[in-house]
Design brief:
mainly alpha
C-alpha cells in the first residue's frame, strides 16, 4: 500500500524548504527537541485535566483541570507542526516504519477518543475516555521512541 503513496512521499521529501533544513546542522535537533517539549507539555496538561476530572488529583479543584485544556490544545498544535516537519524530512522511510504506522494509528484513536470525551463530558463514558486518553497518549510516546529502533 505504501507504494501507492511513493510519488507523494518523494515530492514531500523534495520540498525546497526541507532541502534547506537538511543542510543545517542544528535544525533537526532543534525541531526534535521542540516536538518532545510540546508533547511533554500536552501530555502534562492532559494528565492534570483528566486526573482532576476523575477526582484523582489529591484534592485538586476541578477548575484547575479545566484551565489546562487550552494549554493542551496549543501544545497539540506544536506537536502536530513539528511532527509533520520531522516526518517530511524522511517521509518515505517513516511511512514504511511499523512503529510510525502504529503511532499514527494511536494518534487517530486518541483523536476519536477526544471527540467522544467532549461529546460525553458529563457522563460515566467521559471517565472511561479520560483514562483511555492517558493510556493512548502513553502508547503514542512509546511508539515514538520505538521508531528509531525498527
Amino acid at each position: 500500500m505504501i507504494s501507492v503513496f511513493e510519488p507523494v512521499l518523494s515530492a514531500v521529501e523534495a520540498w525546497s524548504v526541507l532541502r534547506l533544513v537538511r543542510t543545517s546542522p542544528v535544525f533537526y535537533p532543534l525541531a526534535n527537541a521542540a516536538h518532545i517539549l510540546a508533547l511533554a507539555t500536552m501530555f502534562g496538561a492532559l494528565a492534570v485535566h483528566h486526573l482532576a476530572r476523575l477526582r484523582m488529583g489529591n484534592g485538586m479543584p476541578a477548575v484547575i483541570g479545566e484551565t489546562t485544556l487550552p494549554l493542551a490544545r496549543v501544545a497539540f498544535a506544536g506537536v502536530a507542526l513539528t511532527g509533520l516537519l520531522l516526518f517530511a524530512m524522511r517521509a518515505g522511510h517513516y511511512a514504511s516504519n511499523p512503529a510510525m504506522q502504529i503511532k499514527i494509528t494511536l494518534i487517530f484513536l486518541a483523536g476519536v477518543n477526544a471527540w467522544i470525551y467532549h461529546k460525553t463530558r458529563r457522563s460515566k463514558i467521559a471517565r472511561i475516555t479520560a483514562l483511555l486518553s492517558l493510556a493512548l497518549w502513553t502508547l503514542v510516546l512509546l511508539a515514538g521512541r520505538w521508531i528509531g529502533f525498527v
